[in-house]
Amino acid sequence: MLRNNKADVRVGLLGFGIVGQGLIQGINMQMSNISRRLGTPLKIQRALVQDTNKKRIIGAPELTTYACDILEDPDIDIVVEVMGGEQPAYGYIKQALEQGKQVVTANKLLLARHGPELKALARRNQTGLFYEGSVLGGIPILRTIQRGLCGDRVEEFKGIFNGTTNFILSRMYELGEDYSTALRLAQAAGYAEANPAMDVSGLDAACKLVILYRECFDLEIQLQDVTMSGIKHLDQRQIALQKRQGRIPKLIACAKPQNSEITVGVEWLPDGDSLSQVSGVQNALSLRTLLAGELFWSGPGAGGLATGGAVLGDIMESAERVLTERDRGFLQAGR
What domains sit in the chain, N to C, each tagged with a CATH number? Predict the structure, then answer.
């Protein structure tokens, strides 16, 4: 394929927190492989932050406090949203898609609430919306479902979709720590936000369930269709009682369309269950299909590097689309 190698692929970051810094770290570790695969450099042009003077662990690209410096920059090919939250991320992504930019996001709340609308907007503007990092951290499950299982039919799934709560429950069960202690350790390790409400309430897992449900079953559901509960109600008395009976607490997301079961909540699993053995910040998915039968994945579900790696995979795919479009324009110009 003839490729225009005179221009690199330029990326603008909306947000530069744990995931954004994990992404930069991943790019630095993989720079030579990225350039070799794309045939041209990948450059982080600019990152949107709230405070340009804040000290950061990893070296930052050029920083700005103005979203327009990214969204209105014609040299930026790909907009990567890793700021989280519904607003202003929703408006920024819409603007980027309307301008025909490729968009990558790991924002599960935004996609759970607006995913179908944003996907339709991307189609109308003949651009891409990529969101592998929004579900199950470092496990590339969306690509597997969209491509690897496109000839099969998913019938049901259940899994551990939140690494933060799995870390907390593992500490409480295995080490006898109370909820508050385990939560503080999760925050200190960067697995939990300063405000952990979205994780511990079950909302984070519910958002991922909604996204995965749409991909697996091609059916539309909303967050309010999920029966949801979290982990804050658990104490050591309950855990000790269940532990004596050989049962392990896990926050489980479950979808069975045939009986309309769409739930997120604590389940007490026997120690022989595959999901019961998933410890720490690991995520896992048990999925049953018509042809392949039972399938199982596990991998890191929290932390900047794991999610940053999933985002980088989406950036690579969107960069290849950018370069294909350049090739097409280059060839047409040469006729």
Answer: 9-137+305-333 (3.40.50.720), 151-299 (3.30.360.10)
